[in-house]
Every structure is written in C-alpha cells, then in structure tokens.
Design a protein that fits this description.
Mean pLDDT: 78
Distance between the termini: 109 Å
Strand order of the largest sheet: 2-3-1-4-7
Shape: globular
Largest sheet: 5 strands, mixed
Number of helices: 14
Order of helices and strands: HHHHEHEEHEHHEEHHHHEHEHE
Radius of gyration: 37 Å
Length: 441
C-alpha cells in the first residue's frame, strides 16, 4: 500500500495562539470594553504597554472601579409610572321592568350560527330555558349566521345573569354540535340598548323581523333560521331537549314560553314633568278627563263607557291585544321590506337587486366571515323623543355620580352605605344595600 507523502514542516497548520486580551476582545461587547478601558488606572501595566505584538501578557486581572449608583428622583419616578388601567366595561343601571334590545356577535364574525337542525335546536332550547328561569318576557328574536338580536322585558332585573348563563351554556352545546373547540361567542361585551318608549320597541321589533332582508339574504318569512316572524303574539313556543348534550336528569324534555306583546305603558320613562312623579299614562288620563269635563261629561261616565261588556273575559281582551299588535308590527315590517327592495333596485346601491335565497344561506361555509363595521356607536338608549332621551342621559349621569360616591365610601370601610337604584354588580357580588325605586340614595 502506497503511503501518503508527508508535508514539510513549514506547511503544517498550527492554530493561532490566543492570548487573554484577544479572548476578552472577542467575547466582551463593545460597551463593556469601553467601560473597562475608562475604569482602568493610568499607571496599570496593561494600559502602559504598547499595542501590538509587544504588549505585555500579564495574567494579573485589571481591577475594576466600583460602579456608582445613581439616585433616582422620587417625583420623576412617579411621572414615569404608567397610569392605572381603567375598566373598559361600561357601568349599566339594571332596573326591573326595563325593555332591552340585546345584540351579540360570534367570534371573528364566523358563521357558527348558520341555520341547521342541531344549531336551531340548541339555541331555541337554551334560550327558552333561561328566559323561563329568570322570568324575562320575550317580545322578538332573530338568529342570523354570525349574530343574534333579542327584545325582552327584564321583570326582576336579572338581565346580566340571564345573558351569562345563556351564552355559557349555548356556547358549550354548540361546540359539541359543530365538533369544534373554537370559541363560539365574541369576547366583547354584548350590546344592550334600553328602549324608552313604545315607538322605540316597535321599531326594534320591525328591525328584527326585516334583518334577513336588510342583509340581502331572504324575505322575513323565508328565513330558515330562528326568528319570531314564524310565530304570532300570544302563541306558545316549544323547544325540545337536545339529547347529544343536555342531561335528561337535570334538564326538562320540553320547554314552553309565550311570545308576549308589548303593553301600552311599556318603557321606563313615560312622563317628563318637572316633578318626576307623573307617568305618561296618568298624564294622558288627566288630559282626557279635562276634555270630557269641557264637553259636559265626567270621568266616571267615561270610565263606564269604556268598560267592557260582562261577556268579554280576560282571555278575549288579551287575544284582541295580541291580534292588534301583530297587525301593527306586520304592517310596519311590510313597508320596511318594500323600502329595502326598492333601494336595492337603484343603481346607486351597489348591491344585487335580487336576494341570495334560502339555498345560499344553508350551503354557506361556517368558516365564512360576516361584515364587521368597526367604529360604529353602541347606543345606550333608543327613542325618537329628544326630550325623553335627554332625561334618560341626565338620569344615567346622576346614577354614575352616586355610584362612584357610594363605591368610595364602601372602599373606605363604611359597610352600611346605600348604593343607587339600579346597582347590580356590587349587589350580587358583595351584597351591598341598594335603594329602592324612587328612594334617595
């Protein structure tokens, strides 16, 4: 076997010998080297030695000067501290008897609520179950593919508890129905607009009914999802338990609830007198009494004339009220649908003149996203009466001021402090005393 020729001595590779100074230069950062040169003594051997090959290779470490601690100005430190983070949740007065328009969107505007047999079954069953538990009156509802709307009357002042349980239980059941682990509902707070008068309630119900047409999908009666347009006022709505999620031992098999019409005196603020003690119904009655007296009649005669005949019972009066209210809402909804369709036919609208149809709704992918409009206002109240709206805003400002004052007193150790009427969070969590309606806080 032929041997490999050996290389000459001058051609052999020898690694360069690294001194301590070169190792420090390679490892230490630039700022540390500059600090080390400035802190070294002038008579030290390392600083006196010339640079280059003739530099001393002393192994004695160079002593470092002690680093001076800078005293911070306490006032400057307070100025540099970031401000305390305030709560982004708007404080809301929850009063019994208020009528609310509730809106909630899905996570990332995905079509988690696209009409389907299992989805409709879960949503309707959970909705009726929680409405019956917290005794809320249902006036209207619609579940679109990426959001839903409700119009309810909070009889006992339990709206936050109802929404918490409804969103929690329906979200878990929908995850099982859809076979996904993604969040169903949006993490933002649900929208709650208080309807101050009867006209605002009717406009909200019409908006719910024409929502599928306004989105360019179907007519109100052709929407395949959940909507109150498929029922009449006074009719009983039924929902059966979904066996794939709800337990038969803890949940009833069938839940029934009535679609309630809006009463004549609906709304929280009915009167706007300076005293604040007269409501709208009393004001109207006083006005009618004055008219009757001017015509020569009396209040007793007017009450006798408007009294129903003996054969007419309570159920008959309720049936008439439901029929009249249903016709009124249906008539306003028809006019709104005609206006939307006429607007879509104009070339300036920029949208197709024809609706998408039921088949397009049912075949849409659940990964599809809806249009989310950022920056829109989230109104706290709804009413066409500007005087009534201003009164509600002033009452809310007074509520915020009284609640903040009571909170500060409670935090300072005063346990018997009285919170203003409508306080919900502190009442449920800490059990504070809350003033009754009309009582000064």
């Amino acid at each position: 076997m032929r041997k490999r020729p050996s290389l000459p001595a001058h051609a052999t590779h020898k690694p360069k010998r690294e001194t301590r100074n070169s190792t420090e230069k390679r490892r230490a950062p630039t700022k540390a080297r500059a600090r080390q040169r400035s802190s070294s003594a002038p008579d030290s051997p390392s600083s006196a030695a010339p640079r280059g090959r003739g530099r001393s290779r002393s192994t004695t470490p160079t002593p470092k000067a002690p680093r001076k601690r800078m005293r911070r100005n306490p006032s400057a430190r307070r100025r540099c501290e970031p401000p305390r983070r305030r709560s982004r949740v708007r404080l809301r007065a929850v009063r019994p008897g208020a009528v609310w328009l509730i809106t909630k969107k899905t996570n990332d505007d995905l079509f988690h609520l696209r009409p389907d047999g299992a989805v409709n079954e879960v949503l309707l069953y959970t909705l009726l179950l929680k409405l019956k538990r917290y005794e809320l009156h249902l006036h209207g509802y619609v579940f679109m593919s990426n959001h839903f709307h409700l119009v309810v009357t909070d009889v006992r002042g339990q709206l936050p508890a109802f929404m918490r349980e409804f969103l929690s239980e329906s979200g878990k059941a929908l995850k099982v129905a859809l076979g996904t682990t993604r969040r169903i509902w949006c993490a933002d707070r649900y929208g709650a607009t208080e309807l101050l008068d009867r006209d605002a309630i009717e406009r909200a119900l019409v908006y719910l009914r024409v929502n599928p047409t306004n989105a360019g999908l179907t007519l109100p009666t052709e929407w395949p999802g959940l909507t109150s347009c498929h029922h009449r006022y006074g009719e009983v709505i039924e929902a059966r338990r979904a066996d794939f999620y709800f337990d038969a031992h803890t949940r009833p098999d069938l839940v029934r609830i009535t679609l309630e019409p809006v009463p004549e005196n609906a709304g929280r603020l009915q009167g706007l007198d300076s005293g604040g003690s007269t409501v709208g119904g009393e004001r109207d009655s006083a006005h009618n009494v004055e008219q009757d007296e001017a015509r020569g009649g009396t209040a007793q005669a007017r009450a006798t004339s408007t009294r129903p005949p003996p054969g007419v019972g309570k159920n008959t009066r309720r049936r008439r009220l439901c029929t009249a209210f249903e016709k009124r809402i249906a008539r306003r909804a028809e006019r709104e649908v005609a206006r939307i369709l006429q607007q879509r036919k104009s070339p300036r609208s920029g949208s197709p003149s024809k609706l998408a149809g039921t088949r397009a709704v049912l075949t849409a992918s659940r990964s599809q996203r809806g249009n989310h409009h950022y920056g829109r206002l989230n109104p706290r109240y709804m009413s066409e009466d500007h005087e009534r709206m201003q009164r509600a805003i002033e009452e809310h400002r007074d509520f915020l001021a009284r609640h903040e004052e009571a909170k500060q007193r409670y935090a300072s150790g005063e346990v018997r402090v009285l919170f203003p009427y409508g306080t919900y969070g502190y009442r449920e969590r800490f059990g504070v005393r809350v003033a009754r309606g009309g009582e000064a806080a």
